[in-house]
Task: structure prediction
Amino acid sequence: MPMTAEAETTALMMWRIRGEFLEMPGLRLTSEQAARLWHVDVATCTIVLSRLVSDRFLSRTRSGAYVRADAV
Result:
C-alpha cells in the first residue's frame, strides 16, 4: 500500500530531524524553536519530536527541550 502524503511528509521530517541531531550532538531545542528552525507548525513538529522520543532517539529535559537520548 502506498504511503499517504502526510505519512511521507512525516517520514521526511523525521529523517531530517535525526540528521540535524546527529550532525550537532549538543543540539537542544524546544518544540517552538524546532518549529521555527524547520519551518513547520508547532503541532506538527511536536508530533514528530514525540515519535523520535518514542523511538528512543530523542529525550526531553526537565525544561521541555529535546536532546539526543544518548546525550542525557
Remarks:
- The radius of gyration is 12 Å.
- Strands lie at 58-60, 66-68.
